[in-house]
Amino acid sequence: MNSNHHADDKNLRISAEEFKARLEAGEPATVLDARNREPWESSPVKVKGARRWTGQVDPAWPKERLTVVY
What we know:
3-stranded parallel sheet; 16% strand; disordered N terminus; 70 residues; alpha/beta
């Protein structure tokens, strides 16, 4: 992979604390759970409002909105 692929990789990560603060400040976010179907379906632990992400990019997702994949 070209090391210049992302000019600033630190912008691709967010801490749980920063994410929580941004949500509490009212910033809208899309939250995607990247677990495989079986672990996701059988787990009692999920982030409220998260959707399971299958790896496909949805063109309807707003690009200006914070999107967190975990």
